[in-house]
Amino acid sequence: MKRFHLREISDQHWCPRPLRDGATIFLQYFENVSNIFSTTSSLIRHAMERCGARRVIDLCSGSGGPWLRLYQSFHEREGFPITILLTDKNPNVEFLRQTRAISCKGLDFLPASIDATNVPDELTGFRTFFNSFHHFSPEEALSILQDAMNKRQGIGIFEATERNIMAILQIMLLIPASVFVLMPFVRPIRLSLLFWTYIIPLLPFIITHDGVISSLRTYTPRELRNLTEKVANDSYVWKIGRKPVPNLPRTITYLIGCPITDDEASS
User: Fold this and answer.
1) Which of 66-70, 119-123, 236-240 shows the lowest per-residue confidence on average (mean pLDDT)?
2) pLDDT-based confidence at 2, cuts 50/70/90?
3) SS3 for 197?
4) What's the confidence (pLDDT) of residue 73?
5) Rounded distance, CA 95 to CA 121, Å?
6) How many CB atoms lie within 10 A of CB 140?
7) Per-residue b/e over 173-210, b at no fewer than 16 CB within 10 Å?
8) Domain locations in the chain as residue ranges
9) Using the 8-state DSSP alphabet, how is residue 236 labeled?
10) What's 9-260's CATH class?
11) What local confidence, expressed as pLDDT, does residue 265 receive?
């Protein structure tokens, strides 16, 4: 299936802030309650060990992404304590503050706008993207990879969306029901979320619509490989693949890049 770089409703400047925030808040809740990115923790740990990093710079975090669950996994299952800094070009400061409050001390956020194609030099650490890389055009995606290479920072890109008919049908059939069933459990309770879900059900429509668009924009492993070949040099190593999600009919597409060590360069 051909890739279509279309715009999601929540990405449009005319989308009201309550609806945009409502969509990202629900997605953050869903990613954590489903633990859909649980399979990525070992990939990230190995990459961070290779890079000598103990700090994660999460880019395009939205309302926090899956890090509430993943952070626990790193400490409890991986035995690899880390700190996490959530960033976004348009940060939802109120919700990120709440995410920090209910997390452990190792998770924080930046209220300032951070451009993923040109991350400030002082933000050193292993860079992560969860369900966000598909938002970028091929030219922007290349800039993201090149920026990580220029600053010799590790990078991990993880997508739970897939560009095929079956994945799109799953979204169209399952996401509306999931929004209706799960929205009352999103904390803290917000009347605006309930209003735009049950009284005027725009949130189920927007989340489903944007999910379909996300699938149509998702890069395949071959396309990710083509991107890395365009920025390839001898100082970086790339790993690209897919991992199944336990108990869910999904696979995670991933791209991981790390600068090679001095020992590897001399061998």
Assistant:
1) 66-70
2) very high
3) helix
4) 83
5) 26
6) 14
7) eebbebbeeebeebeeebeebeebbeeeebbbbbbbbb
8) 9-260
9) E
10) alpha beta
11) 60
